[in-house]
Amino acid sequence: MVRMSAEERRESVVRAAMSEFAHRGYYGTSTEAIAKRVGVSQPYLFRLFPNKPAIFLAATHRCMEDTVKMFAEASEGLHGEEAVHAMASAYTQVIADEPERLLMQMQVYVAVAAAEAAGDHTFGEAVRREWMELWDTVSIPLEGYEDTTTFLAFGMLINTLVAMGFPPEHRVWTDVYPSARIKGPREK
Fold first, then answer.
1. φ/ψ of residue 121, rounded to 5
2. Contacts of 16 (CB under 8 A, 6+ apart)
3. pLDDT band for position 145 (cuts 50, 70, 90)
4. How many Å apart are CA 20 and CA 37, to the nearest integer?
5. Which of 82, 61, 47 is nearest to 133 (CA)?
6. Per residue in 159-171, pLDDT tens?
7. Buried b (16+ CB within 10 A) or exposed e, 16-38
8. Torsion angle in degrees (nearest 10) through CA of 133, 160, 125, 112
9. Are 56 and 26 in contact (CB under 8 A)?
């Protein structure tokens, strides 16, 4: 059996943490569950990360980084409406293929609100920096503030509809532009 390096083990912890946090949120996820999913002890987990907030922040970073990369790749060489449809299509495909990424995004927003309500602004500041990178990545090919706002507003609508389980054929999808609609089983 090949041994993993510490960096490979960190990566496996981040991926496992994303899955655990996506389904149970920050407060509902134990470091024991993350360690168990990875197959390491809690003491080893804490050699890789100093504490649970650091694990959550690393998982948040990975989620946002993967989303930024997906938008950048989808819009490469495109502008305006072509970029809108390419990014919308790529995003809906990702959340269909990787629903945990969507759930992790939703948990991150809730965790920021909870931390801020408790007086901890450090986490929110870090997440807002990550989110601004997402904003900038989308904004460049869309060539304008209004287009970016509209695109991200539709994205949040899509997040909400998918998280609440509205099926692709439901009428709530009617006004979502076609490239951003979740595909039904026969449309894939």
1. -100, -5
2. 34, 37, 38
3. low
4. 9
5. 61
6. 998 888 888 888 9
7. bbbbbbbeebbeebebebbbeeb
8. -160
9. yes
Cβ contact 71:86 at 8 Å: no
- Tokens 């099926």, residue? 167
Where are the alpha helices (H) located in the chain, listed in sequence order?
6-28, 31-38, 42-48, 52-75, 80-97, 99-117, 122-142, 145-163
Q: Tens digit of pLDDT for each residue in 91-128? A: 989 988 898 999 999 999 999 999 999 999 999 999 99
Q: How far apart are CA 94 and CA 64, in angstroms?
A: 13
The first and second tokens of residue 160, run together, are 């909400």
CA 76-82-88 angle, to 5 degrees, is: 80
What pLDDT is attached to residue 100?
A: 92
Handedness of CA 71, 90, 59, 147 (dihedral sign): positive
pLDDT band of residue 182 (cuts 50, 70, 90) is low
Tokens of 170: 């439901």
Give the type of residue at 163: A
